[in-house]
Give the backbone structure.
Amino acid sequence: MMLMNSKLQIVFTSSLSSFLSLKTFSLSTILSANSSDRQIQTINNDFWSSIFIATHLFESAMQQLVPPWLEKLLGTAFFSVCRTHGAAARSECNMYCLDCNGDAFCFYCRSSRHKDHQVIQIRRSSYHDVVRVSEIEKVLNIGGVQTYVINSARVLFLNERPQPKSGKAVSHICEICGRSLLDALRFCSLGCKLVGIKRNGNTSFMLEGISSSSSTRVISSSSTRRGEEELREGSQQDIYPPTPPPPPSTSSTRRRKGIPHRAPFGS
């Protein structure tokens, strides 16, 4: 893992250094009084060739850290009604195929078009897209991303969520968006981790020993079908730990006295 991260940093640094060096050399040569039009054209071609090579090297290094389907997944709109099966009961498009890397589709499309493909199911909590940890961790390294327990299932969010500013001091925040975190982690979502990789290259989505061309594993169809209706509309309070019940009272409970009876009058 560290080897791939170091590779990205070396490629990015060397590409940037080459770019800046060539740019400085080109400008100094162009400004020279002895430069001919042909020399300027040659330098200009070399300049743009260097940019192309640096970009290609950087993209190649990024493929070692990020699977090719992730960015498309994070930008996909889910939970629209399927155009083909709109009249059916389970027609919402909440499935995504890692093999096809296309648009979202519904339960019935999966049965007919993606039967033997690697598919993950997207769920919702407070109108934000989430995915179960038990599904996504089979194909993605989710280290450093905050997870939450909602409806008895551990999930994580796909993208950054807006958070109103609060005057309260927080111990842990997301490195990218500044959202408060429950644990000492780096990111609040997969989207923020992706931004962190592109900025620094000091982390990765790839699992140990798996290349970008084979970064997905077989996802059991039974695991994706279980609890399909769970997490559809989870509440925000489910994300945070519940308030503990008050401690039991230490004082002894008084017994209620019986009905008082008046003493009989003497005769």
